[in-house]
């Protein structure tokens, strides 16, 4: 669903940032979206995303729809402009095979957004038994974890400086973001951080066990998990709610396309 300005009377529709009925919802540091808002949305999780268009169709951001309010008279949905939905994805050709020598990340804020990112994952190296430095195979999981960390890092600027919602009357300071939703098609990552079916994420157990699983094996890619925790903690210290949203791959095509753009040689960030 897209939110735009209404030009029928030469005035612009202002997207309002209104508190939810009964006060702001209660969040946990690592909560799962939209489960934490179920009592507000009453099971209606359709069209949770609203894209606010710039008059020039650039710098389009994606926000959380305000479902407890009616649409504007022009038919567009109301949304929380102090929220951002950031879609992330990773891609790795020949994942799990010997030929996996490249991987990439995509970070998607919205259509034609200058802050969208498409970049390759840097190579990593290890020492083999002979002590030689050899390149590690790339993996899809490593690319997706890096995309989450980079997406959280990129979103910080809007929590610190705010953003100017171009299609509307600009009043006072830019709107400072207070709610970040990381959208991913990786059930493993979302379940690990935000839990599932009301259960806490595995990451809380990993932290308590020095990043070892219940069977004693170390958690792979610990440095990326540490990076994600660091970025999330930084946002939390700024008063920002961070949530994680698991979606099917078919609902994350834009971030996937950005990751594949980098693999085709069109990386940018």
Automatic annotation (TrEMBL):
Family as reported in the entry's similarity comment: Belongs to the RNase H family.
Native source organism of the sequence: Colletotrichum karsti
SUPFAM superfamilies listed in its UniProt record: Ribonuclease H-like
Protein name as it appears in the record: ribonuclease H
Lineage: Eukaryota, Fungi, Dikarya, Ascomycota, Pezizomycotina
Residues passing through the membrane, by range: none
EC identifiers of the protein: 3.1.26.4
Listed PANTHER family: RIBONUCLEASE H1 (PTHR10642)
Single Gene Ontology MF annotation: metal ion binding
Keyword Ribonucleoprotein: no
Keyword Hydrolase annotated: yes
GO biological process: DNA replication, removal of RNA primer
Stretches assigned to the RNase H type-1 domain: 80-264
Alphabetical UniProt keywords: Endonuclease, Hydrolase, Metal-binding, Nuclease
Catalytically driven reaction(s): Endonucleolytic cleavage to 5'-phosphomonoester
